[in-house]
Q: What sequence folds into this?
């Protein structure tokens, strides 16, 4: 709700507006009558819906944990990133990176269907018509004027068309992205 | 029984199972609406995913091994056993609790196939399962997955085809049928896997197959899966103006497949690491074999790649410092896989057998010669005479040919994802053909190497119900019982045995053989055993043919068959004369019965699947 006590000048204008509306809008008149008699306004003619305030939501943690678990199980991603690499030679890091690359790629292929946002090859000229999807295409550089925009495609983008994550048993602890292993 | 809505094909494979189905209402003629069932399975504890393939592994977990609820599946049940991807993964780390290759045990005549013997290496506290129970478990699992996805049309009410290796003996076929019955299936048929692959090819061609094969073609199907090699020959004949397919021969059961190749490469890589002073533990060797499989497929598939690194990740969390790295080169793959498993050999080559050690460990009878091409040469050579003996096949082979000449080849099985290997087999085969002045065999393209068997089986379920081309198969062997000759005893020599043919070659489903004239005396109330033989080459023998002499190449001895006559009103100890009679059931199993001279009674002979140490 906005401030409910407008200043005098504003009140004068509102009074005139209300006067004419009271005469010509029977429903409004009825509502004002109700306010005066203390019954409160009727919801139907409440002021036009305010624009919903932008909301930020917390993504549910389960699928993030599940994906991290998959990347660790198949690609040892957590092991790799948690390790201090500066002490190792490029060759050693490279050997481990192959494990990570192969495994994480497998996760990507098995669970996601990916396709480029733009089919054109990178470096080619593209034109964006008015009403293009700003979340799928990001404008950078000399962003001025009106669409259609013409520019060079620097990255084709990726879109996930299909996502197939395994179902999780209720009660399964997804926080364990890699269980400790004990050989007997 | 309600009319089935779906025609279903189940590939009950040595390393993978799959299910494919045809919607009967939406299919007409060669327009077939077919799908593959995504089988929900545990891929990690508490994590279930749909996959087209169910790895044929069962893991018997320790009660404390998994958190409660971590083995939950989409359908209710106690889920004490793990099957599929998680079973395979866990089993790689704890092999004493893993059952693999149960199907190969199902046709192992040396063990008790109803006995709880698997896993062979399990400690005493693990409750073992019989090969039969494991097969039934896979079928029950697939049934549950189907019923969960199709609650209104349960699997037991659909038309089902289950595939088996062409080389399965009658006892293994009967056990497969028993496993299917034990999970509530009744309307089902057994189909040989190479035939199924050919059905899949026929279906995939969308009616074009008639243009791709000709009358008098001899189609060789080479099916090389993870653990087994299976060969079959089909002959294209003409009947009433239409093409007709006849399955004319099947090969022996050969335990040789893609897993052998990966393991061979891994041993080579391990030797290289050992030369650098690194000794591998068993788990590292398995990881190496896994890495070699991927590298093999890439090196054989991509000419541009010469060397691929293989990394065995550390087990601990220190990935960078603790991993082992080696390389696999094109030369190594070519030498090990192409020359080791697909060598260029002569058409007269034979598999080399190593003499078996006197005391062999209880295990599967793995092929002793790894060369697929030598097994193939032996198979084709053994079937040379088929051309002269089969009706309609006369003249398919020129005079003096030393082996049966295929004119077309269909490849199936995961090994042939490397097309170089299929090319090599074709090249070797065409070399043999060229040496005898025969035209080169062509390659039939276009089957899905992983799913062709289940797809073909579903298609077979479909064509069985209506019109469409059928492969005429029948039994791929003639069957004999052994009769001990009455001869003066010679010290140190077993009395010679004659073989009496009771089921001829090529008996079709739903038919029975005529009654032989030979009679046997059965003692009431006592089990009587018969030695049991088969031949995949003696096509001319009819019921009643008595063989006094044969070569080892011609006739194989199977596990015994036995019968116990119930007393039922007869004085115990009485001798009843009977004739032995064979029939092939609609399901596709061989039924052996004893028929007494008078009356309408019939007694069923049982296959001895308890295993005999002599065989």
A:
């Amino acid at each position: 709700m906005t401030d409910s006590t407008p200043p005098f000048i504003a009140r004068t204008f509102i009074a005139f507006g209300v006067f004419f509306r009271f005469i010509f809008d029977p429903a409004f008149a009825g509502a004002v009558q109700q306010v005066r008699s203390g019954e409160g306004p009727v919801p139907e003619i409440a002021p036009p819906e305010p624009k919903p305030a932008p909301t930020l939501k917390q993504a549910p943690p389960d699928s993030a944990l599940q994906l991290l678990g998959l990347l660790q199980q198949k690609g040892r991603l957590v092991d790799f990133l948690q390790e201090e690499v500066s002490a190792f030679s490029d060759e050693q890091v490279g050997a481990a990176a192959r494990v990570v690359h192969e495994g994480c790629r497998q996760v990507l292929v098995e669970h996601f269907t990916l396709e480029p946002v733009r089919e054109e090859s990178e470096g080619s000229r593209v034109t964006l018509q008015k009403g293009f999807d700003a979340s799928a295409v990001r404008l950078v550089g000399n962003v001025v004027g009106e669409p259609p925009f013409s520019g060079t495609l620097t990255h084709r983008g990726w879109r996930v068309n299909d996502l197939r994550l395994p179902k999780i048993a209720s009660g399964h602890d997804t926080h364990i992205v890699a269980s400790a292993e004990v050989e007997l | 029984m309600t009319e089935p809505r779906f025609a279903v094909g189940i590939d009950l494979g040595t390393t993978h199972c799959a299910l494919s189905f045809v919607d009967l209402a939406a299919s007409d003629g060669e327009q077939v609406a077919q799908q593959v069932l995504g089988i929900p399975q545990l891929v990690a504890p508490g994590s279930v995913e749909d996959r087209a393939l169910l790895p044929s592994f069962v893991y018997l977990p320790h009660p404390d091994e998994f958190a409660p609820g971590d083995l939950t599946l989409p359908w209710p049940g106690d889920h004490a056993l793990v099957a599929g991807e998680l079973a395979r993964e866990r089993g790689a780390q704890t092999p004493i609790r893993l059952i693999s290759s149960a199907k190969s045990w199902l046709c192992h005549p040396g063990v008790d196939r109803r006995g709880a013997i698997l896993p062979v290496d399990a400690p005493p506290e693990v409750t073992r399962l019989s090969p039969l129970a494991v097969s039934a478990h896979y079928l029950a699992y697939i049934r549950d997955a189907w019923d969960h996805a199709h609650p209104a049309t349960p699997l037991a009410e659909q038309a089902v085809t289950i595939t088996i290796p062409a080389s399965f003996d009658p006892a293994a076929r009967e056990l497969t049928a028993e496993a299917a019955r034990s999970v509530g299936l009744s309307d089902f048929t057994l189909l040989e896997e190479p035939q199924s692959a050919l059905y899949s090819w026929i279906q995939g061609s969308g009616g074009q197959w008639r243009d791709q094969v000709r009358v008098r073609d001899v189609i060789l199907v080479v099916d090389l899966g993870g653990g087994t090699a299976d060969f079959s020959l089909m002959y294209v004949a003409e009947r009433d103006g239409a093409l007709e397919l006849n399955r004319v021969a099947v090969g022996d059961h050969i335990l040789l497949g893609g897993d052998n190749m990966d393991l061979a490469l891994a041993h080579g890589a391990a030797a290289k690491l050992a030369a650098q002073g690194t000794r591998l533990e068993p788990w590292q060797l398995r990881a190496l074999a896994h890495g070699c499989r991927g590298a093999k497929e890439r090196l054989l598939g991509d000419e541009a790649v010469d060397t691929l690194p293989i990394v065995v990740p550390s087990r601990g969390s220190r990935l960078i410092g603790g991993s082992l790295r080696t390389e696999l080169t094109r030369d190594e793959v070519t030498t090990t896989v192409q020359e080791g498993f697909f060598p260029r050999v002569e058409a007269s080559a034979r598999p080399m057998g190593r003499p078996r050690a006197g005391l062999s460990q209880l295990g599967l009878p793995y092929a002793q010669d790894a060369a697929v091409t030598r097994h193939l040469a032996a198979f084709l050579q053994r079937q040379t005479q088929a051309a002269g003996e089969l009706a309609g096949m006369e003249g398919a082979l020129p005079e003096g040919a030393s082996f049966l000449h295929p004119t077309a080849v269909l490849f199936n099985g995961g090994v042939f994802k490397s097309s170089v290997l299929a090319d090599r087999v074709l090249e070797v085969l065409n070399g043999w053909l060229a040496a005898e002045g025969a035209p080169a065999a062509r390659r039939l393209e276009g089957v899905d190497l992983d799913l062709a068997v289940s797809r073909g089986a579903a298609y077979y379920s479909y064509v069985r119900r209506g019109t469409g081309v059928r492969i005429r198969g029948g039994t791929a062997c003639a069957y004999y019982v052994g009769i001990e000759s009455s001869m003066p005893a010679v010290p140190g020599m077993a009395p010679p045995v004659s073989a009496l043919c009771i089921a001829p070659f090529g008996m079709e489903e739903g038919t029975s053989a005529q009654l032989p004239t030979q009679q046997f005396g059965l003692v009431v109330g006592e089990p009587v055993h018969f030695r049991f033989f088969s031949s995949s080459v003696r096509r001319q023998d009819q019921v009643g043919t008595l063989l006094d002499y044969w070569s080892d190449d011609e006739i194989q001895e199977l596990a015994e068959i036995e019968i116990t006559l119930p007393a039922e009103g007869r004085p115990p100890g009485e001798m009843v004369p009977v004739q032995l009679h064979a029939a092939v059931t609609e399901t596709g199993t061989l039924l052996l019965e004893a028929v007494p001279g008078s009356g309408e009674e019939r007694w069923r002979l049982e296959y001895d699947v308890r295993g005999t140490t002599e065989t």
Notes: Chain B touches chain A through 27 residues (CB under 8 Å). Confidence is low (pLDDT under 50) at residues 355-361 of chain B. Residues 478-607 of chain B form one domain. Chain B has four domains: 6-191, 212-255+364-469, 258-341, 478-607.
